[in-house]
Structure of Octaprenyl diphosphate synthase:
Amino acid sequence: MEKVNAVILDKMQSDVALIPQLASHIIAAGGKRLRPMLTLAAAQLCGYREERHVALAACVEFIHTATLLHDDVVDESDLRRGNATANAVFGNQASVLVGDFLFSRAFELMVADGSLEVLGILSRASAVIAEGEVMQLITTNDTETTEDAYLDVISSKTAALFAAAARVGGVVADAGRPEVEALDSYGRNLGVAFQLVDDALDYSAHKATLGKSIGDDFKEGKITLPVLLAFRRGAEEDRVFWRRCLEKLEQDDGDLEHALDLMARHNALTDTIERARHYGARARDALGIFSDGALKSAMIDAIDFTIERAY
Amino acid sequence: MEKVNAVILDKMQSDVALIPQLASHIIAAGGKRLRPMLTLAAAQLCGYREERHVALAACVEFIHTATLLHDDVVDESDLRRGNATANAVFGNQASVLVGDFLFSRAFELMVADGSLEVLGILSRASAVIAEGEVMQLITTNDTETTEDAYLDVISSKTAALFAAAARVGGVVADAGRPEVEALDSYGRNLGVAFQLVDDALDYSAHKATLGKSIGDDFKEGKITLPVLLAFRRGAEEDRVFWRRCLEKLEQDDGDLEHALDLMARHNALTDTIERARHYGARARDALGIFSDGALKSAMIDAIDFTIERAY
């Protein structure tokens, strides 16, 4: 990962100083770098011992960062991981354009690597992510959204890049088709689990005790699984409440607390985590065809970590 | 071009209905399709007789369309070519995301074509375009911008894609290095001329007589060559005027008319067109190594058309 970070720092440079300034703001804010780690781990699990996976892991992080920059503009977010978002500091305009730059730079890096198969995987994933984001835009504020429609959204907007990140690791290692498909499946299911837990955390008392803000999705009227479950399991008067808060966005003091009460009453958060466990189990089983070892254990630990951070 | 349009219509489809709706809004609004025509003409000028250039011309138009969608969000524009912009109709959020989709789709199309060289040319051009847009964002409202800095901006934001579009035509035709470089040079200089004329047209009485709106750049405080020339050639009291209108964006009734008067007094528009002629001449001479014929004549006519539309 140190080598990946060095490539990221090197390739986000530009003579236009605002680009590295803005890019380093979001990249240094430092997410968990889960996606590039998937590429590295997948390649090594397939016995890869060379260096190509380093630059490709950086591509994956660039694509992810570009979508984050655009997401924050689309969501009009002010905070990400407790820090001011790039759009809040540098403006929406710069965030849109630097996102475009990082996205283009990712493709330049892939071209330098030279694998059309990798280019195909990541260009396809990028188009699917954009489709997922548009789907989410449409379902936002629609409390009638089904769990299936919600899963379509998160499979596209989140899990597609997890799947592609892991698949690229297998491809670069020249692994066989069963191994590459297994890695794709591992990444995809891990991605769904990750997003489910993220969506639960947005309403989590545990997160609130860590001093992080909760209820951002509620304020924006985003329809996530915790809301879906509470809506479908609730009485008609509850639905009137959800429609007022999330469709009409008419929210008063105490509404978030009432939403949390309804979620607790209907086990909406615990069952969202339970659903995440299901995808975690599928991710774990996808790795079954690989022989045991330290790396495989670490990849399984990543599933557990993804789910346990809910507590 | 009919085949290119068919590919564009086919490849902008998605199960997410909002994507083709929004994409067709901007694509059907129908620009001049100058960039994909460059790819087709360049390939044919090099004797190419197959079909690959059709899909690649569509890629070029997708990249252009993606940047237009993002530009209109960045500029907060309501009108493009006299029609409501996509962001005005569908919102900024959808415009950002559908731009990302079209951009990803362009790379998918290139991967299907299979040439790493083409992928390299267009990914590099895309990164340069984004750099140019960020540069423009920084120079906006800065009346001290030099003509050189302005040329850097338009070389990146506009001419880079013209150059890449023409170069790709040569590469797909497997033309020699002198021919490919000549096509690049033709496209690049044509692109600079095109943008100069566009910037002059934004203040053009001729355009106003056609019922099109003028002064959009003035309202946004964009520093283009007509402004640069009028600012540098004017007296100190004129500069106070330009700074108030374009840096502080304090504009009153009659200010646009006064700006037009100052431009007329200092020949700012006619000399901007004169500068465009210089780049047009360079574009024409770049084609000198190709033997005469109908296609070469058409490409020279395109230069003349680009410049003469100012009148």
